[in-house]
Write a structure and sequence with these properties.
The complex is a heterodimer of chains A (146) and B (85).
Chain A: E1 2-7, H1 13-21, E2 27-34, E3 41-48, H2 50-67, E4 72-78, E5 80-82, E6 87-95, H3 98-115, E7 118-124, E8 129-131, H4 136-143
Parallel strand pairs in A: 1-4
Antiparallel strand pairs in A: 2-6, 3-5, 3-7, 4-6, 7-8
Chain B: E1 2-7, H1 9-15, E2 19-23, H2 31-41, H3 43-48, E3 56-59, E4 62-64, E5 75-79
Parallel strand pairs in B: 1-5
Antiparallel strand pairs in B: 1-2, 3-4, 3-5
Chain lengths: 146, 85
């Protein structure tokens, strides 16, 4: 079962775990990405391209399912405005075997940074805001799966 | 040629609109020349497209390089490198 969502509302991590686990998998790997409140950050805004963002996440999910033996995959990315502590992204990958679940999860979080149409804007307590620049290290981590 | 162009992130902010319909001269045949034409067209274009190497593009939902031809395109999206995850 592959579940891919792009949503402006809060990600209900517990409910998504329950839904994902309903299959009773041998091994499940998870990644929860949250907004950090570093340097007085008050808001993180995720801009997206409605059609391309959803298609990009779907392509990534299917690439992972083609590459590893997965029994279930959940890939949810939040968009719009969010505050420190809120969940930006949730990846759940399950397989009969731990190595495949862990690899699929790592692949998805690395490729999310470089392959999906999403742009982060940070706003701080003093009112200043800036668009996040891509990091060279992120590209390196994504390319190791080529 | 009439073309729908969409902008994202700081490109959108500098252009002042999310998308617009443009009448492109015949000499503008690919993504690279479109970016150069937008940069030369007005102040907002100069601000958004001053550094073409920072611009990525998609034609009808598919990522494309600067040499990609515009013929047959319905929508061109122009944006900086992505920063999701």
């Amino acid at each position: 079962m592959i579940r891919v969502l792009v949503q402006p509302s809060a990600i209900d991590v517990a409910a998504e775990f329950d839904l994902h686990d309903a299959g009773g998998h041998g091994a499940s790997a998870s990644f929860v990405g949250r907004v950090r409140g570093d340097d007085g950050l008050t808001e993180l805004f995720l801009e997206h391209h409605p059609a391309m963002t959803e298609a990009g996440l779907g392509d990534l999910a299917h690439a992972a399912a083609d590459r590893w033996h997965l029994s279930a995959l959940t890939l949810i990315h939040r968009v719009g405005a969010m505050m420190p502590g809120e969940t930006i992204v949730l990846v759940l990958a399950s397989s009969p075997h731990r190595a495949e679940a862990l690899s699929a999860c790592a692949f998805l979080i690395d490729r999310l940074k470089t392959d999906v149409m999403l742009w982060k804007r940070e706003t701080f307590a003093d009112g200043a805001s800036r668009w996040v620049e891509p990091r060279e290290g992120d590209r390196g981590r994504a390319e190791r799966w080529d | 040629m009439v073309l729908n162009v969409a902008y994202f992130s700081w490109v959108r902010e500098r252009m002042g609109v999310g998308d617009e319909t443009l009448d492109i001269p015949e000499s503008v045949g690919d993504i690279g020349t479109l970016v150069a034409w937008l940069a030369a067209r007005d102040e907002r274009g100069a601000s958004a497209f001053a550094e073409p190497h920072r611009i990525r593009a998609a034609i009808d939902g598919v990522m494309m390089g600067p040499d990609a031809p515009l013929s047959g395109a319905r929508e061109v999206a122009l944006f900086p490198p992505v920063t999701g995850g």
